[in-house]
């Protein structure tokens, strides 16, 4: 996957996760960071569950799930 596609997917996933978990986004750079880290977490989690995505939509779902997990953990650590 190209770096640009990876960053676009990360930005979309970070924005979606922000909307789902916090009710707001985190700005373009924040969304990208959350989405990229979320894609790593989501990929690891989906691999453990035996799931695999080969489409762009599947990659966005995987990254979004990972980003929501990341935001949940960060929220628990903060409180």
Automatic annotation (TrEMBL):
<keyword id="KW-0812">Transmembrane</keyword>
<dbReference type="InterPro" id="IPR007341">
    <property type="entry name" value="Transgly_assoc"/>
</dbReference>
<protein>
    <submittedName>
        <fullName>GlsB/YeaQ/YmgE family stress response membrane protein</fullName>
    </submittedName>
</protein>
<keyword id="KW-1133">Transmembrane helix</keyword>
<feature type="transmembrane region" description="Helical">
    <location>
        <begin position="28"/>
        <end position="49"/>
    </location>
</feature>
<comment type="similarity">
    <text>Belongs to the UPF0410 family.</text>
</comment>
<keyword id="KW-0472">Membrane</keyword>
<feature type="transmembrane region" description="Helical">
    <location>
        <begin position="56"/>
        <end position="75"/>
    </location>
</feature>
<dbReference type="Pfam" id="PF04226">
    <property type="entry name" value="Transgly_assoc"/>
</dbReference>
<keyword id="KW-1003">Cell membrane</keyword>
